[in-house]
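Quick one, T. Sequence first:
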Amino acid sequence: MEKILEIKNLVYQYEAGSDSLALNDVSFDILKGEWVSIIGRNGSGKSTTARLIDGLMAAKSGQIIIAGETLTEENVWRLRQKIGMVFQNPDNQFVGSTVEDDVAFGMENQGVPRDEMIERVDAALLRVQMQDFKTKEPARLSGGQKQRVAIAGIVAQRPEIIILDEATSMLDPKGRAEIIRVVREIKAQYDLTVISITHDIDEASLSDKIIVMKDGQIDQIAEPATLFVKDNLTEIGLDVPFSSNLASALRNKGLAIPETYYTESELADFLWQSILTK
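Structure tokens:
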């Protein structure tokens, strides 16, 4: 498959002259259409990596290759159009006085013709089920609604890559699940590549592969099923959900529950099937 992102020997230092490196020789590839999660404990370098990919900061050394083109000072603004980033706090992204103004803002900067802009705004808001809020003030929306608008603003710009920088961490479980569902649908419709910076195991479990970062370096790269079985989830920077704790407790009680990751609904289905087959 085609590589849409190549990270080669990336080094980043927060303060010139400092001995400590925020990133130290980080390298990995992401294929077009993949969903990749980058996880790690606080300070591991995952959000720094995301900001370097999006051109918000400049690396000390190394290469970032986006769709076959190396990111430079000269092309950073053009290549950034291939990437949309959704941050943890959507309030930090809002600039428009209404929802539709905010969704249109990025396209105005790109010089998209007005008629096309209006069509894209309507299509993007419909896609995230926020079409009835287009004239509302973003500040009056709920947390989940704000994130939907932030995603609509990114989708309307037609990027090739979406980066979710802990975009669901401020939401309750229901709101988090809704945002992930919306992103999955958008990814499938537009064949997008998704990079998710997250502590949430349910979000990470959707990934084609997970990149684990530790102390500014790549600790390992693995598929979710492999990683969740062999590693302590807390140690690699994931929040341990109720379903994992319950499954572990049931195994300790002698129930034959396979060593794999279950969402709450998957664990409930497994236990129900176990009861029916007895």
